[in-house]
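Example record

Each entry pairs one chain with its bound ligand, magnesium ion.
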Amino acid sequence: MTDDKAAYIEQLKNHVGQEVTLKGWLYNSRAGGKVLFLIIRDGTGLCQCVVEKGKICDELFEQLGHLGQESSLGVCGLVRADERSVGGYELAVTDANIIAPAADYPITPKSHGIDFLLRHRHLHLRSQGQWCIGKIRHTVIDAVRRFFNDSGFTLVDTPILTATAGEEEQTLFQVDYFGSPLHLTQTGQLHLEAAAMSFGKVYCFGPTFRAERSKTRRHLTEFWMVEPEVAFIDLDGLLELAESFVSSVVERVMRDNRSQLESVGADIASLAKIKPPFYRLTYTQAVDILTSQKTRDFLARELEELKSRKAQLEGKIAQLEEEQKGQIKQWKRDKNAAELIELRTDLAETDTRVENNPKHAQLAAEFRWGKDLGGSDETILSQMHDKPVFVTHYPKLAKAFYMKADRNNEDVVLNFDLLAPAGFGEIIGGSVREDDYGRLVARIKEQGLNIDNYGWYLDLRKYGSVPHGGFGLGIERTIAWLTAQKHIRQCIPFPRMMDKVYI
Ligand code: 4AD
Ligand code: MG
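Structure tokens for the complex follow.
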């Protein structure tokens, strides 16, 4: 086999009628008498390779027929367009070479539990689901950079080792820095504010760390955040920036990753609607919604739907379990077993939601002005909207020290959270920053932070202080929303969670 015909699967459309060589891994295979159907993946896509007995030597035909999943190989053949084939093209194989055979690959095309898959993440990355999400993540990150680079922002890399706390002190990871304590950064914001006073419009993009004791579907201890910061901007300006930024990222992913979005079950029709303007609510309006009859009715309807879904799942599981007890073909037994794993996972999740619904309904009904919105409150507000919704003007006492008090109502701050629709909740947090020296000192002291660590930050208010603000968008939460993943651990290649770091 020669390499001068080397091609990637994603380029096959340009090679119809030509001989090419593909190099990759055996994703799946099936034998149909005198024909083998090998599905090969090469990092750019999947291709069905058809091997007919007699067209290659018998020994090779035999070896290919017994080749294990994820063996690496090269195949040479003629490219044919075939709509029924995965990817739309297939290869009529004329030659092949096995590079490294693999036996007993632990992840089969059948279903596995999530814990097993996380323990095998190093291999699970090769699955179609993880591949699609990885491709989407790549586009999201590229679109993020492009948006800011094309809008006059300067990239400023902020440090990962810091002495200052940007968010709640309880969530700091401490490191021993040559005998003195330092922290892993929770946000690049404070350093970015310094950079904004030099460049005007800046952004940072990197990993951030939170020792958050929450094992929820929305929390990682290491996640990626992009943070823009702008001098001379007000709250309205920030909202406009955020909605055009998020819309541009969605548009790019819809353009470049349509097939991957479809493959992971994304809600394409809803994503097509993501265009400015987004909905805008004040925190006070959000509290009115949470405590309203409309929300009580909404949650009661949801509970009925969940209960009927639970009954359906239980019925289907009972039916399959009954089938498994009888005499059935092995392929059917395997198929049922895989389906049962999925149905039981779905049932466990539905069960949790049935249990949580009344608790969340109570939390919402009893919500009192002054508290920060909790995860379940955000979910409810987000479920009630078909486009992202900004919630602005939170109570000052519930929020970080750096947020600027609204001069028209000192009880609230000029901040916002952006909630993604369909129950995905907060993807952005941002604010106008307190730019008055005296007020900022008072806030730092009120929150019990060590003022000595904030000398440099306070300098920014001494030497040419200006109104400014910014926000942070969590990459994994954004991808979870775009790809309709229930848990954000699916949206980063090697997730770090409070209860476990697998690999
Ligand atoms: O709302 P947060 O805490 O805001 C800040 O850190 C600001 N300093 C940003 C700024 O104004 N420059 O976090 C911003 C976003 C959240 O909306 C969420 O998307 C994500 O970061 N995020 C997390 N993602 C995954 N796991 C966690 N534990 C997260 N905590 C925050
Ligand atoms: Mg937040």
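The first strand starts at residue 19 and ends at 32.
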